[in-house]
Amino acid sequence: MKVINPRHLLIGLAMLAAAGLALALTPRLKVADQGPKISLEAIIPKQFGEWKLDETIIPLMVSPDVKALLDKIYNQTLTRTYINSKGEQIMLSIAYGGDQSYSMQVHRPEMCYPAQGFEVGRMSKGVIDASGVKLPVMKLVATQDQRIEPITYWVMIGDFAVRGNWEQHIARVKYGLTGEIPYGILIRVSTISANESQSYRTEEQFVRDMLGAVPTKYRAVLTGRVNGA
């Protein structure tokens, strides 16, 4: 009868324990299934403050391969263009995905725009003060030929407003430790202008106006628990 090496036995038990721990820590409960159903069309008003929906603008179409990827990641998308009395236009894009596991994470503009032939540069972090809520945002400029598009965006991973890959990762880990899979929302506003500073100011005001007009019970879905930067 062959005697089992105690060292090999301990290694085997350790591997089994690690496998069991990994299985136990694998998130299974979707946060999106626990709260009220989210309808982007319903919670984002078509008119607020000095902004109203610009019905004359046709949304920019993405390539078929990018659309297929977005359809896989997101359950809902909302694309609108707003205009104010000054003639300033803001493009709003919101994408919601109920599953923010690692294979289904939201694609940030610095990843999506190059796939559409844009060059991305001048990225920086910022904060928008919306009625006392310090909302962390990312700012960047995408260019394609003569088109210059300053962009402001943030990502919601469940209750956490994040910016950048590292903050997304930390938010997912926090949820993973509770056995939950968070939902994800990408909120992006942009303008077509070579005046970056003015564009960012207009975008910030638009965000404040929009969040102020969102029904109170849904506002936290777009701002979460944020602590500033």
Give the helix/strand layout.
Layout lengths: L5 H20 L3 E2 L9 H4 L3 E2 L2 E3 L10 H10 L2 E8 L5 E9 L11 H7 L3 E12 L2 E12 L2 E11 L2 E3 L1 H13 L3 E2 L2 E7 L5 H18 L2 H8 L6
Parallel strand pairs: 1-10
Antiparallel strand pairs: 2-3, 3-4, 4-5, 5-11, 6-7, 7-8, 8-9, 8-11
What features would you describe in this structure?
- The protein has helices at residues 6-25, 40-43, 64-73, 109-115, 164-176, 196-213, 216-223, and strands at residues 29-30, 47-48, 51-53, 76-83, 89-97, 119-130, 133-144, 147-157, 160-162, 180-181, 184-190.
- By secondary structure, it is α+β, with helices and mostly antiparallel strands.
- The chain has one domain: Protein Transport Mog1p, Chain A (3-Layer(aba) Sandwich), CATH 3.40.1000.
- Strands 2, 3, 4, 5, 6, 7, 8, 9 and 11 form a nine-stranded antiparallel β-sheet that branches. A two-stranded parallel sheet has the order 1-10.
- The longest helix has 20 residues, at 6-25.
Instruction: Return Rg in Å.
Output: 21 Å
Cα distance spanning the termini: 65 Å
Name of the CATH architecture:
3-Layer(aba) Sandwich
Question: Uncertain segments of ≥5 residues (pLDDT<50)?
Answer: 13-28, 100-104
Main sheet summary: 9 strands, antiparallel
Along the chain, the helix and strand elements come as HEHEEHEEHEEEEHEEHH
CATH topology: Protein Transport Mog1p, Chain A
Number of domains: 1
CATH class identity: Alpha Beta
The amount of beta strand, in percent, is 25-35%
Number of strand elements: 11
Shape estimate: globular
Sheet/helix structural class: alpha+beta
Give the number of helices: 7
Helix proportion range: 25-40%
